[in-house]
Design brief:
This protein is 40% helix and 25% strand.
Length: 158
Amino acid sequence: MALNLSFCKVARTISDLYKDLFQEDGANYNGLCSFITMSLLGITSLSELVRTVPGSMSVSSLSGMIKNFDGNRFMRRMRISILKRYKGELNPGDFCFAIDDTDNKKYGKKMYRVGKWKSSKGIYFGQRVIVLSLVNIKDGFAIPLDYRFAVKKGEPDY
């Protein structure tokens, strides 16, 4: 899959909106552009991202960047931009909330909230992420509003 220059320009334009959030956590602009491109192309793994995007950082550098990222500030910024964009144009009948859980089948000693989980495909070891989205039924798109890592019943935070 070859990337054209206009696609890379879109990724850089989106990255410009959020680069100040990532710089505090030690992330660089190249890594942020790589993650935006990963999202836009629907790439599911970091190794696939490195193979597809020529200017991308290494898998280990991208993994380290993810560990230090505070996602809550990013989600707050996204919610504010959504409210500004739709100010005065919202019809409550066009929207509904949706909750979805996503499996992250990666694990390690330093990973947060890792455990055994059951899914429709069987039991796996990794993380489970719960995502709350605002769904526009009329236009057919979803806007993620918040996310949390699922907690096992035996953990003190349950």
